[in-house]
Structures are given as C-alpha cells and as structure tokens.
Amino acid sequence: MNSIAIVGAGLGGLACARVLQLHGLDVTVFEQEASADARTQGGTLDLHGDTGQVALRTAGLHDRFRELARPEGQQMRALDPHSGDVVMDEVPTEGDDFRPEIDRGQLRGLLLDSLSPGTVRWGRPVAEVAPGTLTFADGTTAESDLVVGADGAWSRVRQALTGVRPEYSGVTFVELGLDDADRRHPDLAALTGQGTMMTKVDGQALVAQRNSNGHIRCYAVFYASEDWAAGLDFADTAAVRAHLLERFAGWHPSLLGFLHDLDGGFTHRPLHVLPVPHAWTHTPGLTLLGDAAHLMPPLGVGANLALLDGTELATALATAPSVDEAVRTYEAGMLPRSIETAKACATGLHDLLSDDLRSMAA
C-alpha cells in the first residue's frame, strides 16, 4: 500500500487525509504545533458552493458542516466612512446557502474529528525535505511514497520544490476583536450586522466580520511600507490605538469606535503573497496544496481552494494507476486554476482599497 506524508494540519492537509482514509489509504499528517489547541485558528470563512462545499461533500462532511454553518453570515454591508451611513446592505434570502460562514476553528475541528486516532503527529517540526523523505528537527526521519506540502505561507516543502518565498504585498492588516459584542458593544454590533461590514476611502479600510459565540473580528487595512511599524510596540495597545486613530483621522466617530472599544490588543498581520504565476516542474515524490502552492490575498478563496486541492489530490491518489500519475493529474488541474484565481485576487486586493464602497472584495 502506498504511504502518504502530509506536512501541515491546516484545512487542506486535513481534508486530503480524510479522503485518503475514506479510500483506505495510508496517510500520516505531521504538524509542528504541539496540539490542536496550541493557537487560535483565525476568523470566519465563507465556504463556496462550487469549491469548498464540493470538497466537504467529497469528504462526507457536508451535513455536519451545515449544522455549524451560519447562512445569515452572508450579509454584506458598506458604510460611508465620513457619515457612518449605510450605503449598501445585501441580506441573504431564505434558503441562500451558496457562501455560508463558519469559524475556521470549527471547520478544522470537524476535519480533525473525522480522522482515525493518531493520524496527526503533533509537535513534529520539519527541518529538511526531499522527495519521499522528511527529516524532523530532532534528527529523526520518515519515509513515504509522496510528501505533500500543506504547510502554509512559509512552507518548508515549497522551499524544497520551488525555492520561492512569499513577498510583501504593500498592504497590511491590523487585527482586533470584540467579545460578547451584542451585549458589551451593541452599537458596533449593529453597525456590523450579521455578516461582514466594510468602510473605506483613500487606500484605507475598516472591515468587521461576525464570528460565532458573539465575537466580532475586525481589521484595519491600509497600504504601507514593509517597515511602517518600526518602533511601534504592538504590546502597547494605547500606542497602537493612537497611531491608528491618527491614520484614520476624519472618519465618523461611530466607526472609530472599533479602534477605541476593542477587547484585548492589536495584532499586526502584514500581507504576503506568492508571485503570479507560481508553478513548478513536476517532481516525483513531492507536491503542494493550499497556501503552500498559491498564497493569495485573503479575499475569500484561500480556504476554499485548499479544501478543493486536498480532496482532488486524495481522489487522484485513490483512483490513478500510480502515485506519480495521480500527482501529475492533480497538478495539471490545480496549477492553472490557482494561477487564474491568483490573478483575480491581485485585482481584488486593489478593489478592496478602492473608493468604490460597493466593491466588497473582502
């Protein structure tokens, strides 16, 4: 029986492992983090009916996903940054579930629970990668018929396959959050609605998104040089707040409330992307999926493509005459798709920070 080693226990890697196990194939997932709860898993995701949900159906998890999904989270609102007035409010119709929202952590938990016990080996950081061979930080090795790089933006498997590293996009995100928002921050919760709220002008934006359990995750987004935060201590919440309030001066006080009333601190998330196109010469024993293959701006497609990549690769491995033919089939479909999507996302990033309030690229 062929053995598959997946590096990275993110959504794409776990979806791949799930479908491989459905077909009775031998798979192990190696993850550098110590446990499933080692860190928070980020915000909310919209799972598209033609990509992410297709993958979940392939994985036999769509019904369980529907139990957790929030169709009301498809609401999209745009507010005028100077007046605070609502200029667009698109509320999903009853039965519309093309892009329902789900917390990333909930989706990851769903995938983890679907795997056989022991599939994920936690606390296994990879130091070196070669076709069919992983060398871990402690010097031990693992052999397999295929190494799948599902290890995200700073993928070690990608370094072995293409040597390409992400580049700073010129756009930065500063993340903040509101807890128990409907009770503790009712005015900001009302501005957000049940899904995503955006307001933007002059190359700057504020985005707020509903998560489950009353949490709202927010982002201040703007063009900036890579060293814009030099000298700014993100552990000093007051200093970061003062900087952002100065940067967003002139915006309506109701919107600046997101910067005033946050719970916890600010997190700096400079946006990195892979060059377009990012492709490689087929190499037996190695391949990539998700952000390791096609890191793009966070405009609602990354998780969907990672899930689709993972399930398509697993299906090919289960049905092709050989591992190498399976990988060739997978790459022949995934690479053109990811290149075209990356081109669209590059345009979408510009739209995100354009003055067109009805352009909701996020």
From TrEMBL:
Q: Where in the cell is it found?
A: Cytoplasm
Which residues does the record give as NADPH binding sites?
39
SUPFAM superfamilies membership: FAD/NAD(P)-binding domain
The cofactor required is: FAD
Catalytic activity, EC? 1.14.13.-
Q: Give the superkingdom in one word.
A: Bacteria
Write out the entry's keywords from A to Z: Cytoplasm, FAD, Flavoprotein, Monooxygenase, NADP, Nucleotide-binding, Oxidoreductase
Give the reactions, separated by semicolons, that this protein catalyses.
Answer: a tetracycline + NADPH + O2 + H(+) = an 11a-hydroxytetracycline + NADP(+) + H2O
Q: Which GO terms describe its cellular component?
A: cytoplasm
- Domain named FAD-binding is located at 4-76, 286-332
Major location category of this protein? cytoplasm
Q: Which family does it belong to?
A: Belongs to the aromatic-ring hydroxylase family. TetX subfamily.
Task: Report whether Flavoprotein shows up as a keyword of the record.
Answer: yes
Q: Does the keyword NADP apply?
A: yes
What is this protein's function? An FAD-requiring monooxygenase active on some tetracycline antibiotic derivatives, which leads to their inactivation. Hydroxylates carbon 11a of tetracycline and some analogs.
The protein depicted here goes by the name Flavin-dependent monooxygenase
Which GO terms label this protein's molecular function in UniProt?
FAD binding; monooxygenase activity
InterPro entries listed in its UniProt record: FAD-bd, FAD/NAD-bd_sf, TetX_monooxygenase
In its UniProt entry, the species of origin is given as Amycolatopsis mongoliensis
Q: Which GO terms describe its biological process?
A: response to antibiotic
Subunit text: Monomer.
Top class in the EC scheme: oxidoreductase
Q: What is known of its domains?
A: Consists of an N-terminal FAD-binding domain with a Rossman fold and a C-terminal substrate-binding domain.
Residues recorded as binding FAD, renumbered to this chain, are: 46, 104, 291
